[in-house]
Amino acid sequence: MLRLALVFLLLTAGTAHALPVKVSCRVPGVHDADVIRVVHAVGLSRGVSDKVMLAGFEAGWVESHMNNLDCGDGDSLGVFQQRPSMGWGAPEQIMDVSYAAGRFFEYAVRVDRPDLSAGLLADAVQRSCCPERYDQAEARAGSMLRQAWQGGPEVVAGVLHVVEDGDVWADGARLSTSGVFVGRPSVAGRFVFARTARGEVMALADGAWLPVASGVAGDPEAVVRPDGTVDLYAVLADGGVAKLSDPLGMIGMGGGSPQGARESGSIPSSQAVSPASSAVSPGWQALSPAGFAGGKPSVIAYPDGSTAVYVRSGTKLMAGAAGTWREIAQGVDASPEAVLRPDGTIGVHTLIDGRPHRLTTTWEPLGEGRFIDTVSAQADGTVYARTAEGKVLKVG
Which of 17, 62, 120, 342 is spaced 20 to 30 A from 315 at the CA atom? Predict the structure, then answer.
């Protein structure tokens, strides 16, 4: 009965204003990049629909410009200006962005109806004084969502590849125009691979993007084999690590250096959906059980054609070769990046609490900066990482 009473209270009482009305509560004019990534991650972890996710970003922009405010109207606090007096939680809980986002999404899912737009759904949760302002924030919310999907850098032969605002870029040259790409690209020889939020992997060659695989939950890793073919590695929607041999040959894609870019008609233009909803392409070879890993694999290709695969499994760093997995280290909270050094040894790097680390006898920090997603490591020991604001820096 207490829970039902709380739900009734939340759904019938006003909980937020469209931006704090206190003059003393200063609201930044731009969003906090770390906040949008946390809100986005919480929504993904809960498997919310596209509309619910968009509602969260519209509400966050209207209420706080997506900043974790320690002030507001009355006792309102945080990203969504939730009020302790209305049962949203203790002040210290509401100031935890993960908690606040979880509460928002919990009630958004509860009150969602087919006839509600994302903005009206946001108002159904917030009960704002200005319900029309949420739908008016749709463009801004969409832009923040695309930024939240951006991943780490891929630096190959000195060329920087990143996803920015839904498209793939190489040293400032735009390689796509569809606005559907997310995460971190992967470069293998003359081919560029990137995934969409639908869990599809696309490849760029001969100036065209074509679909090569589906059903992935994380960024792909493409590796050139000694015979010139490309193998694709990824964590699938079920959490299993898998390999797709010669996906380019399967679709008859020719060679050629990527120059310019034209979009295949198969590229989706609608709002992205959860990767878990994508059907899995045939041909994936399972390398691990389901639920084994998350994020992006890193693969070392040896001159003799053998490979070693590195993944994050919970907080463990695991290495797989010849069908077996072994634990290398613990304490990781981001995907690893392994690189083959000139002397034949393997260097492994990752982000721990947002800081770049390299593995020696233990994890050794490379600096004090905070970064997102994955790092890009080079054979000479150089490491590149991306800030939440989108800048790529050389670290270590």
Answer: 342
